[in-house]
Amino acid sequence: MTHPAPLRWKPNVTVAAVMEREGRFLLVEEETSDGLRLNNPAGHLDPGETPAQGCAREAMEESAHEFTPTALVGVYISRFTRSRDQEDITYLRFAFSGEVGAHHPELPLDEGIVRAVWMTADEIRACPERHRSPLLLRCLEDYLAGQRFPLSSIYSDPSVTGA
């Protein structure tokens, strides 16, 4: 008697931008099944892109701001149960800091994003119940503590991008 192969667990790989300008951080307010929540501009890594490329793309799509990753703030993992269907989800997040470029207000924001908003660290700390993920505050605190790793610490084989 043969047994079916067990399902292979695969965390969702996401990329997030810690975008700071003059002591304020750019977050997005987005519709979720739990109501409006705040998050870093972030999203899933797409096929064919490096984590840094994915981060720059997600920052533009979610905030309409150009973003050039210059350092890895950290790699984070979190798990939660989605309220609408009780799905058990694990996220593996690569968070980047970098240079915030031009704003393109003419661009539409990703579906579900209500607005991009600049907030101070204290304003972000004051509303943890509005955070989409506990990783928002952890990434912020690591960034403020000066945690930075070179982009070269993430190796992307040429097979990823087809280069």
Q: Could you state the CATH homologous superfamily?
A: Nucleoside Triphosphate Pyrophosphohydrolase
Class based on secondary structure composition and strand pairing: alpha+beta
What is the helix content?
10-25%
How many domains would you count in the coordinates? 1
Gross morphology is globular
* Uncertain stretches: none
Strand order of the largest sheet: 5-1-7-6-9
Largest sheet: 5 strands, mixed
- Helix and strand pattern: EEEEEHEEEHHEH
Instruction: Say what the CATH topology is.
Output: Nucleoside Triphosphate Pyrophosphohydrolase
Output the number of helix runs: 4
CA-atom Rg in angstroms: 17 Å
CATH class: Alpha Beta
End-to-end Cα distance, whole Å, is: 45 Å
| Assembly context of the chains | single chain
Average of per-residue pLDDT values:
94
Name the beta content range: 35-45%
CATH architecture: Alpha-Beta Complex
Question: How many individual β-strands?
Answer: 9
